[in-house]
User: Fold these one by one.
Assistant:
Number 1:
Amino acid sequence: MEQGPWDRELYPALAVTLAAGFAAFLIWRFTLNAPALPACWFFTRWHVYCPACGGTRAIIALTHGKVAQACYWNPAVPVGAVSVAAYLLSQTLWRLRGRRGWVLRYSNRWLWAFLLLMAVNCGARNLLWFGFGIAL
């Protein structure tokens, strides 16, 4: 099975990004003693939820194993984490098997579905905020 044109660049880029993110987390946690994160600049300035709103809280919830809470804060974060993990795992196993067998391939459909999920989450949060006065 031939490797797709995007997979050639995406696989190592995701692996390096994952390693750099983990290193940044270790520095933040152990060297800087986990300082408090600043308030969201976008929400503080305009009082509107952005598409990534709740993403930091969702990542923190995921690192503590609270998947339901992560989905509450921003469902795109756990969906993205599972998607990236599945992609990296399947690509790694495919490469270890000598590039034989089934493997997940990159497709723009994954990106558009992720962006749509972020937009729906943003729209729902702002509808609840402006339409019903429910702050999340």
Number 2:
Amino acid sequence: MRLIKMTILLPVLLWLSACSIQGKNQPGSVDIYRQYVEQNHLDAVSKVKAFRMAGWQALDDQWLLLDNAPSQPYLLHVSIPCTELRWANLIQVRQTMPRVLQADFDSIHVPRSPEIRCTIDEIYPLTAAQKDAIVKLSHKTTAH
């Protein structure tokens, strides 16, 4: 009887823990970065010419900030959750064309999971003030 209970209970507990880990990306959850884009009427661009990455910051599994040298920040959304993105020390931006960043063609890779291709599906140019606001927003979500 005890073995039967454990056989039923263990898969349920594993499923619940997986749901809590992925909480930010569950259907119906609030996407604060999507809300920011919509509330501030940000317009996506299909490509960035003369792109040279100067820095980056992960916001969650699907949103990140990229800095283009010399000082143009961009908010990027990737098509699938990049599960290691939040904890990565390095990322690789794989570009289909040199010095051009393109939505739907280029991707983000985390060295710890090189087989996962996180295709960039949205690119939003930001002002320095918008970047600061998004960084503050990300600090609020990680403080909880």
Number 3:
Amino acid sequence: MVDHSTLHILLADDDVDDQFLVKEAFSEVSNYIQWEAVSSENELFNRLEPAEGKLPDLIILDWNLRPGAGADIVKNIRHTPSISSLPIIVMSTSSVNEDIKSAYLHGANSYIIKPSSYSDLVKTFASLYDFWANIVKLPSRN
């Protein structure tokens, strides 16, 4: 069942080229995506402050937003009561099993290896959008 609910996605990625590609790929997937991006861990946590407005429905987190700190970022989100239930999708070029295990161990909801082609990126995000917008039920965000 497709109800065309708007999915609010917050991308945390320090690479502006990746931000652009992700935004373009999602724009090909659906018109029902509210999009915003941050480029640093500091910006991410500032954006997730209650005073900054409505929380996103989900976060797509570059595992290397701050090199070597992906686990710390996920753990900090999970230990902050006001944002602990936000779904976190880790996205990385790393296919190292230790990174994947660490992401899940610290509370990521999924781990996506960045596709190498734009067409695969669009396919990946089409599946991601369908799952998070149409299959699962997310809590309302105030």
